[in-house]
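Sample log: U-box domain-containing protein.
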Amino acid sequence: MDEIDVPPFFLCPISLELMKDPVTVSTGITYDRHSIEKWLFASNNDTCPVTKQPLLPDLTPNHTLRRLIQAWCTVNASHGIQRIPTPKPPVDKTIIQNLLKDASGSPNLQLQCLRTLKSIASESQTNKRSIESAGAVKFLASVITNTVNSCLDDDVELELKASVADEALSLLHNLHLSQPGLKTLLSHPEFVNSLTKVMQRGIYESRAYAVFLLKSLSEVAEPVQLNNLKPELFVELVQVLKDQISQKGSKATLQTLIQVCPWGRNRVKAVEAGAVPVIVELLLEYRERKPCEMMLVVLEILCQSADGRAELLAHAAGVAIVAKKILRVSTMANDRAAKILLAVCRFSATPGVLQDMVQLGVVAKLCLVLQVDSGNKAKEKAREILKLHAKAWKNSPCIPGHLLASYPTSA
């Protein structure tokens, strides 16, 4: 290919590779189906990559261009160019609807249906959208809910039903549902509770898929839906974090906690589930920027409650590891860590806590924040903390005197 001049209009504007299945979008530009589907559906874009104009999701096969490309491949076969195969057309929605109708029976029929749908979905993003629009989301939610609940019974088909639930979860995850599809899941009674049960006793893959779905659902849920989350869900989210089933699973769990904890009594539920000590232990272990930032965000949210601050102070390394992350991760992490320390100093600053902050080097770190490039927000919070307790820390030998000299000892 490097030695042959490929006609420019044979190349996809996104991948810059020879198009195998050219399709034309509503703006008149032609792309390779795989590339534009990834742009539209996997990356959730709604504009044309070339013209930047709003884009409809309709893709029209460009048969004329495909035949020209195939003819060009045939002519250049002596140069090692292989003829592109005629692409398989997207599946018709009626076929999917009939498949769903036939699956409303035994677990064996459901399992067969799910595996067929999974195969269809793997062929293209367009097929995934067709599966979603054909009503498969409600079907999958019902399958998961009914199967998970029936698995509680002493049933000879227990293993088969568990396989059905696992396949349904896998398919839901791989569909990369649109926002309306996710809201359909949220409207299904008991679906979130079913995900909690999957996380309690499911296999590794199913626990991961459940967390990924919860993360997506939390991003589109209404406040009233987030307020009604049960304590058991938080117990399982914390357990997933503790088990470290995968990096992606941990990231999705942290993102879910960030989404749901600001609402209602969810902070308390997360604290009671043991989130604070688990996150502190993970902060001791992790050095990567993104995970540390997310952990500090969750910890800052939880420390807005008295119980959260108490749990942080109860952990021997709690305050110390928060301070240690300052100036070692990112400007954003500096701000979040300083915000956690400010909450402690405002509302939970007993004489013992203040003394510990000196001995652990926390106060010295705050002084350093004022002297280096740590971000304006972190500097403001560090200055406020030092001002709040200047009297308690005034004579500490580890703190440069000139940094606290401007703060009144009556503070």
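Observation: The two ends are 74 Å apart (CA to CA).
Observation: The chain has 23 helices and three strands.
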